[in-house]
Every structure is written in structure tokens, then in C-alpha cells.
Batch of 2 targets.
Target 1
Amino acid sequence: MKVLIFQTEDEAKLRAAQIILSRVQSVPNSVLGLATGGTMEAIYAHLIEGSSNHSVSWSETVTFNLDEYWGIPADSAASYRTYMNEHLFKHIDVAMKSTHVPASSGDDPSDAAQSYEDAILTAGGIDLQLLGIGKNGHIGFNEPTSSLSSRTWIKTLTQETRDSNRRFFERLEDVPKYALTVGIGTILASEECIIVGTGVDKAAAIKAMIEGPVSAACPASALQMHRNVTVLIDNDAAQNLDPMEYYQHVHPEGRETELSNV
Ligand code: PGA
């Protein structure tokens, strides 16, 4: 894993936006995997600003979101479809028909999951997957103990995740109990991943992801098996990492290594 540690959370998020923007600029028909949550809000604000400042067009870009609650209308205020429309899609020139979010309702969640997985394969797979990380180490809604080779599926949310997401709903009872999520195996099949975690709340999960055993107890640790992952974190989230001098030596303050200077 490439571990980039920044002084502030905004620097980490800005770098994530820059990586995505340069991908869209250089390969306009990229297939992007996108995420939701508090961390992503600033990243999307940077993306919107960067797209407008540098005239980057998303007109050929295809997106697949990681997950969606199951059992709420897609157009409800708390759905991830609404989140994406509000925080990103309506502010850039992406074709709405090229934006995909898993279904939030239907007769059979397993069928909906399979259709979503098939759509990703038909699009040629994910070129660049953006990820956040839960306090419990989840990626997408793959909660601890999820199969590391899972494909898009229906998952039961932990109480901790429901409590964390309570802020987006009026009452705790309104927070869905289930979600459709791209699987860990689906994420591992992407060409490249960037994962962003900031703040002291994420420090334990970040340590388990980077330095812990590969284990379903921390789903993000499966990324140790991916060949092209960049971890973007701030000092607070990095505080438990062990060979800190090494990470700082390789990428001082989050800078890329310049091999010509080595
Ligand atoms: P957060 O969620 O950005 O709201 O902390 C991240 C996640 O649960 O994946």
C-alpha cells in the first residue's frame, strides 16, 4: 500500500479529488467507483471546483456507487442516490444515465445485487475505486466478518454503523437495517483503489487495515492483497501507525516519491 500522511484532513481529501480529476482528464471514459458518507462531502466539493476551474468534462465518464440502503425509496432524502445527485452529479456534466447506484428496493435483493455486479462487468470493471473506511474497518457496507471474496450482495448493518449514520435520519428507527453493497471481491477486482480516512475516530481501523493481519475482522485489510492502493490519511488517523518514520521517509508530508532524486 502507498501510505500518504497529510498534516490536515483537507489536504488528504484534496489529494483524493486531484487523483480522480486527473484520471477523468486523461481517460475521459473511465469507469469510476464512488462512495458516500461524511468524508466524501469535501472530496466532491473539491471535484466540482476542480472540474469547473480546469474545464474537465465528465460527459463520457461512467460511475458505480459502492452501496445503497435497502428498503427506502431511491428518491428519499437519506438515500445514497439523493446524496450523489446533491453532492456531485448535478454539479458536473456527467450523463445521469451513466451514473449507477445499487437498487434500494425490489422483489428480491439477491437479483438486484446480481444485476449490479453484471452491470459493472459489462462496463469493463472499475478503473478507479474511491473508498472511505468505517470506524469498524468496513469498506462499502461490508461489515466485519464479510467474506473477503464477496461480490455485490445484501448485508445486515451493524448497530455501530446504524448509530454512525443516525445523523442522516430523523430517528434511529428510520435508519435501514440492510444495504446492498458491492462486495470485497468486487472492490479487489478494480484496477486501482484510493481510500481516505481522517480523524482520530478512524485511527484504529487505519492501523488494522495497513498493519494488521488480513482478516474479515477488518474488511479494509483485504486491500493489502490489492496491487495498487493509495491510502490518504491525516496525522490524527495515522497516530497508531508503527513504522511512522518509514512512511514519512518514503512520502514526506504525503508527497509522491521522486525516484530521480533517490
Ligand atoms: P464517514 O463514513 O465518511 O461518514 O466517516 C465512512 C464509511 O463508513 O465508509
Note: The pocket of 2-phosphoglycolic acid is lined by residues 37-39, 132-134 (CB under 6 Å).
Target 2
Amino acid sequence: MSLRPETLRGVTITGTGMYVPDQIVTNHDLAKIVETTDEWIVERTGIRARRKAAPEQASSDLALIACQRALEMAKVDPKDVDQIILATTTPDRILPSCGCTLQRKLGATKAAAYDVFAACTGFVYGMGMARGLIGGGMADTVLVVGVETLSRIVDYTDRNTCVLFGDGAGAAVFQACEPGTGIHAVDMHSDGELGEVLEVPAGISRNPANEHTVAAREHFIRMQGKKLFPFAVRSMEDATRKCVERAGWSTDDVQVFIPHQANLRIIEGVRERLGLPEDRVYVNIDRYGNTSSASIPIALDELVRSGKIKPGDHVAFAAFGGGATWGASTMTWTAPVPSYAPVEAAAATGGAA
Ligand code: ACO
């Protein structure tokens, strides 16, 4: 049963791409700079390594490679992209937006480009926006990229956070498809009351940068991990259940579950609550850590390129993050060959599922 108005035409993903920087930072490397151990990090988080951007690499550089790979898979020329939605917490700069910088580098001259700040839920928010834009006929091709250089805002004197985060980018090309396939539902939520649980205290209008904010290390991530943990499990379960119901499925029908990779114990908690077997849940946190908005599209691209997602598969996505934000999505996988439904034709048949 549908709880929301349906879109005019189906929306699907026709290409995916990812990029992670070359430098691998292991738990043993971190144990040399903060009081921690490989055993603690693996047992409490499931993370064994994460990637770190080279000094000359900014978020737009990582995003560029992921986007080029996604566009190549979709066989889309950058000049045909209508919108670029760049999800991040670590843009190159506040002005211009990272989306506009990426647009220039890609040569996507026709595209409207902008940033979405929804922390780790950014890619799921981007999916919702792409679905609305294409489904409603405002755009034909939307490029959504989640990208982070979290190593630039991680405090390498704080063992509570520096072991968790990694750098990377993942992208997906969204286009129209036959109604009834592709994306079935996207669920997006926020709760600003939880804002201080995960924050970067200084740097912009509330607390502009000065020598005191720098001395107090207020430009780095601060997190109350214990408070986030139960919220993460509950919120991802709830959002996934809503999207599964709106797709007309039961949780048994989910063949591939792609959760945000924040902590292996959180992923396990969600998996158990949803009653999913282990082999249906994708995990790569051991290799990349928490790459925030990039974690879901990186996982998706790995699944697509290794042939672990096939046309017809029922796929569910779920994420939570700072803000607080959370959300989920369900789709029937259609890539790599989409069938286009012009707006008029889809409207004539009564719209998408
Ligand atoms: N190495 C060794 N000990 C550590 C480390 C470390 N790296 N980090 C913390 N500890 C210590 C703590 O100081 C604490 O010691 P104390 O009892 O003497 O004070 C002890 O280990 C236990 O700490 P807890 O916070 O209870 O550990 P917990 O089991 O909760 O795990 C963690 C901590 C991994 C942060 C967990 O709470 C978690 O994953 N929370 C969710 C975090 C998350 O998902 N954040 C989302 C970010 S997404 C975004 O939007 C960017």
C-alpha cells in the first residue's frame, strides 16, 4: 500500500562509481598516535583500516573520479546531466559550493549543482531528491554523489572519534525507467533536537574561526557515540520497514540490504531486528571505516561491479547521521539497461508505482 503520492514516471540508477584515496591507515598506525589497540577497534567497531586523502586532494577531486566512473557506466555525457546533488559534510570550501566546483571539473555545463548537508544520510536524501525531480518531470538525468574527506575534520588526538572515520566518494546516475520498477520508496527524517550529539562546534556563523576556536580544537568532530548508538539502530530499522511496506514487500523479500557503515555492531543490530540473514547484508566497514555520505554509494558500486546485484533484485538502503538525520529506500534493481518512459507516456498510464 502506498502512503505518499506516486511519481509520474519510474526512477532508477543507471550507473555507479566510487573512488577511495590510495593511502591506507590501519588500526596499528593509529595505535602509534593515540592510546588504542587493533583489538579494541575491531571488537567495538569492526573497522580494520580506512583511507586518507593525499594533502593535495579535496572532496571535489574524490567526487570527480567517482562521478566519471558512474557516468561512464551509464553511458551519459557530463553535458547531459541536468542536476548534480553533492552530499557532504566536508566540502572543499563553504563558497563556492562543492557541487559547483565538481560541475566545473566534470564539464557538466548544463547542470544545476548544489550541496546537501545531511551527514551520513546525505546519499539517501539525494536519492529522494533525484526521485522527486525525475519522477515529477523536472529533470531527466541527476547525478548524486556522496563524498567526504573526514580526515580533515577528525581530531587525531581524540581516540573516541579518530579511529572511526575514512575518506572516499561514491556516485550514482539516476534516470527515468518504466513505472513500477526502479525506486519504490524513499523515507527521509530529521530531528534537530539531537544536533549536539555529533557536531563541529566552530567555523561558521555561530562560532567563527579565531585563535581561541583553533586552540580549543573546535574545528574538529565531537561525538557522543553512546547516545547515537541505540538511536542509529532504531531509526534505520524503522525507516527500512516503512520503505519495505511501501514497496509491497515483507523484509523476507529484501535480497540485498545496504546499510550506512558506521559500526559493525550497529549494522548487526539492524540486521537482527529486521530478521535478515547475514549473507543479504553488505559490509565493507572493515576496509573503509565510516565514510559518512559516501558509504552507501561506495558499497553499491562494489556490489554492482562484482555482479552481486542483478536486475530484478530487491534492494534496500538505510542510513542515519548527524543532525540527526535518517532515512531509507527500496528499489528493484534495473541497471545497466534502463528503459526510458517519457513524462507524457507515464502520465497517460497513470504514473509510477
Ligand atoms: N581505543 C580504546 N579505548 C577507547 C577508544 C579507542 N579508540 N575509544 C573509546 N575508548 C574507551 C572510552 O574512553 C571508554 O573508556 P572509559 O570507560 O574509561 O571512559 C571505553 O572505551 C568505552 O567507551 P564507549 O563509548 O562506552 O564505547 P562503545 O562501546 O560505545 O563504542 C563507539 C564507542 C564505537 C563510538 C560507539 O559508541 C559507536 O559506534 N557509536 C555510534 C557512532 C556513530 O555511528 N556515529 C555516527 C557518525 S555518522 C555521521 O553523521 C558523521
Note: The radius of gyration is 19 Å.
